[in-house]
Amino acid sequence: MSQQPSGWYDDPSNADMLRYWDGVTWTNHTAPKKSPTAAQSTIGLPQQSAPGQAPADRTGGAVPTAPLQQGTGWPSSTQAPQQQAPQGYYQQAPANAQWMHNIKATADGVPLASWGKRVAAWLIDGLIVGIVGGIVAWSATPRLSELFSEMMTAAEANNQARLVEIQTQLTGPALQFTILLWLVTTAYCLVFWTTVAQTPGKMALGISVRRADAPGPLPIGTALLRRIIPLAGQFVPFLSLLDGLWPLWDDKRRALHDKVASTQVVEGKQPRKQA
Q1: Strands 7-10 vs 207-211: parallel, antiparallel or unpaired
Q2: Alpha helix (H) ranges present in the chain?
Q3: Do 267 and 22 touch, CB atoms closer than 8 A?
Q4: Biased composition, Polar residues: where in the chain (predicted)?
């Protein structure tokens, strides 16, 4: 069964609206068929074609003349639009529909995830990695735990000379701990990004990561590039904060690590890789 392309389709639950199909599921993203300020808008109407031919869609393919069946509610989340691109289908917003061009989306029309959703997903993932990764990294650096224990003893005894000595000795084990924690976090991200394009945090918020130029889970090389900025942020003051805030003013809602890897975070799931 061929998979329907992502794009704007007639909303099965409302004849006056378009709803975005992300290639896998219906999204919450809707828009009116006609701009409130453009009386001559042709959104939702098929292009004219020669007599005896099926009307053409905006991408040049033939489409059936029958519109989508209207119902009293949404189809199931995985029930695709008609097998052929239905009347009113747009892979991208029509040129004369400026109101739809103003919607933040990828080049092929997939709505971008908001900064708030990205932060919420990051907090969920941070909690998971902080617990699991912290335990792994702490267990792998026994000298670090020994030095912390000695520091507590020296502090209780008010032994300032010993405290200064311990602080000097902490540099190596603390660096090892930081690198191990980054490696655990990277393994966590790579497993999810390259298989389902969603970490547990992104799954909970209904968003996913993809390449800017193509849907689907990330290739391993792209996933590794996406981890360079977080690694540098361990050693460069304020870089992690700047990276996290960057989507607020970026025109494509990209963080710095997205710009490095040419990725974008979008609404909905990603289509699975073909076997």
Answers
A1: unpaired
A2: 98-101, 115-140, 142-156, 160-169, 171-193, 200-205, 220-225, 228-232, 239-245, 256-261
A3: yes
A4: 37-51, 67-78
> Is the four-CA dihedral 189, 195, 201, 207 of positive or negative sign?
positive
pTM comes to: 0.61
Q: How far is CA 146 from the centre of its chain?
A: 41
User: How crowded is the C-beta side of 243, counted as CA atoms within 13 Å?
Assistant: 20
Query: How many other C-beta atoms can be found within 10 angstroms of the C-beta atom of residue 155?
Result: 13
Q: Which residues pair with 155 in a beta bridge?
A: none
**Number of CB atoms found within 10 A of residue 220's CB:** 11
| DSSP reduced 3-state for 162 | helix
Give the Cα separation of 150 and 155 in Å (integer).
9
The DSSP annotation for 43-70 comes to TTSPPP--TTSPPB-TTS-B--SSPPPP
Write out the chain's pLDDT in tens, 275 residues. Answer: 445 666 777 777 777 777 777 666 777 777 777 654 444 444 444 444 444 444 444 444 333 333 333 333 445 555 666 544 444 455 555 554 555 555 688 888 788 999 999 999 999 999 999 898 888 877 777 777 787 788 888 788 888 887 788 788 777 788 888 888 889 899 999 999 999 999 999 999 999 999 999 999 999 999 999 999 998 988 888 999 999 999 999 989 999 999 999 999 999 999 876 54
Query: Is 176 in contact with 145 (CB distance < 8 Å)?
Result: no
User: What does the block give as tokens for 122?
Assistant: 């990051």
Say if residues 97 and 63 touch (Cβ distance below 8 Å).
Answer: no
Q: Which amino acid appears at position 74 of this protein?
A: W
Q: Which amino acid is at 267?
A: E
Beta bridge partners of 62: 56
Burial of 26 (0-12, 13-18, 19+ CB in 10 A): buried
Angle at the Cα of 76 (from 70 to 77), degrees rounded to 5?
Answer: 120
Nearest to 81 by CA among 183, 162, 4: 4
